[in-house]
Amino acid sequence: MLGRTRKVAVLAAAVTLALAGCAKEDTGGTTASGVPLIKTGSLTTCTHLPYAPFQSKDAAGKVVGFDVALIDLVATKLGVTQAIVDTPFEGIKSGTDLESGKCDIAAAGMTITDERKKVLDFSDPYFDATQALAVVTGKEVKTLEQLAGKRLGVQGGTTGEDYIKTQVAEKKLDVEVVSYKDLAALQQALSTNQVEAAVNDLPVWNEYIKANPGKVAVAAGFDTGEQYGFAVKKGNAALLKAVNEALAAAKSDGTYEKLYATWIGDKPTV
Asked: Which ranges carry the Ionotropic glutamate receptor C-terminal domain (predicted)?
């Protein structure tokens, strides 16, 4: 009887494996408008969390933000839903994640640069970015020169890091630039006095100050002329066209301004 039970179990396992082998893998396809997607019915977005107010998790664990809301418009235009993948920023800006098929589009508060254009195709700009110097409330720091002999925090792999390192080198400042892996680590370093000041995009600091009143203040701004763009794999003209059309429609019908007011707070300038 025991031998028979074992035979039945082995047969059942074999059937399960056979059925698993027959399961059809989702290799994606194209939308009705001819846009290729890596997964049927989904616009898969690569981002790097947290980076509020552009993308972060709310109290329920849902990823929300300005970037998320804008890409939702693109997904709606394509007749699909957005699926978000949290991944290191290095893989996003290098084009690796898009090239490998991890996602269809990158939306990560990413500045358009000539270097990144070599490996990514960017959408039309959707946000004008300004770098800002933040300090713990009460500290009298207004310029980089006042940080002589001090530690200045930046987020690694960002244009803010590039800008600060260039400024420190060109001005021959005695400032130790410390790079952190993500925004959360940078903000933690500043709030616990591991660094004297920190640099990142202005809306990011504004969001942090709103969530942590009285702890941190913006001491100075740096108008670097940066603009954010969404990115797609090199040569993905169909998706890029859909993204630009969705952005243009949102700006013309007032949706962009409403989303901007909701997530950023100030009146948009583009």
From this structure: 42-266
